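Pilot study result, target chain (244 residues):
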Amino acid sequence: MDTVVALVTDLRSPVLYALIVAVVFSETAILLGMFLPGETAAIVAGVLAGQHQLSLQLVVPLLVLAAWAGDSTGYLLGRRFGPALLEGRLLRRRRVQIDRAGATLRRRGWLVVVVSRFLPFLRTVTPGAAGVSLMPYPTFLAASFAGCLLWGVGCPVLGYFAADQYHRVEEVMGNTGIVVVALILVVAWAVRLRRRRAAHRATTDEEPTPHADDVYDPGSVGPVSPAGSVGIVRPRRRTDPRRP
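Predicted structure:
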């Protein structure tokens, strides 16, 4: 990151804004994150804001919108060209794993999209994968905006306050991503366990309880007949006199 900061320090502010927005947008739109993570650009933007070369009040909304637009573009490209890529030789052998990933996105897509924004590699490929798995577009946009908002505020603010210690920020962000994932997994497990217990409790409550009249009493022989005999059925009288 030292090299990146040294290269952009002498650039004018409009060029810096445009460059940062382009890198963050391209990270998920055209998979540029494989080579230059947008996280680096966001942190550098915060560092430059701390050095009074950029405005933090302008950097934050630009980062959020650029990241959100990049995610949306990556989703649409994945939805449009993803099925054709899946049929290619390169990905055909991985079809089972890809189908499982798509199923995970359909079940827990909102959570996956938000968390992936804090993990470099997943941040790059998740929008396209969501498009390939046909995740509902409104759901994706909402989850993407939530993740981009947290990320677009957190990264530059860390860079802003870190100032000369910006080389430590990337390490902190990497560890933070791991901690965030761990916390979310714990919360998801707790919620799932709670739902299972609630479902089991509801099933138990719905089981019919035996009525007092239906309880078998060993001391009783049978129902009481109108004549007062217990458990005895009287034979009918024969009405035909010709029969003995």
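One observation from the pilot: DSSP finds nine helices and no strands in the chain. A full batch analysis is planned for the follow-on phase.
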